[in-house]
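Form 7-S
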Amino acid sequence: MIEQEVIFSSLGDEEVERQLFTTDGASKQAMLLARADATQLRTLQDIDVRYIRIGYDNEGSWLAIDLGNGEVFSCDDEYNLVDVIRTPLETILNWPPTAERLLLLTQRLNHRELSKEELPRKRNVPKSEEMIEWMLYVKAGVVTRENVSDWAGHVLNQSEDEMIERTALDGLILLSGIDLLDNEGHYLHREQDLDDWIEQLRKRMRQHED
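Output:
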């Protein structure tokens, strides 16, 4: 369940344009409402309070969120469905996804259910446990090396002006190069390298605990 106050706090003082995609891949131009307008609409709402309107699209439909499951959809005044929006709520409202959500969205990307541009722009700096998990995901075939490299590079670029704890920084630098190729087109870092990295991170975690 998403609290409506969290939604309102993510809206700006003015309307903001967003490009969204439906589940069939169609593009929609939408405007997110200003915080004050969305709040006023909510105050006047007397039907289907599980839904909250956050904007409108270029076809004259409302953009709404199901507070129960976080799904975004376009609808009419009575919340009758027009289109299901596949673009994640985190992307629309510029939230950093949780580790679980980022994994799910990455898998959707790999299954071509999302485009790369639809992934959330903000990312949390991962803990060592999360970096280990993602390397294990690579070894298990759950995600690709390219997924992990993109993720690590995104966090590094986003965090250029932020202070990142040294262990996290070292881990991100390692992961950003996980997809490098040698002259023959093979991955430069073999499976054993990944095992060594995992052990290095675990060792640093133990040292930090001590």
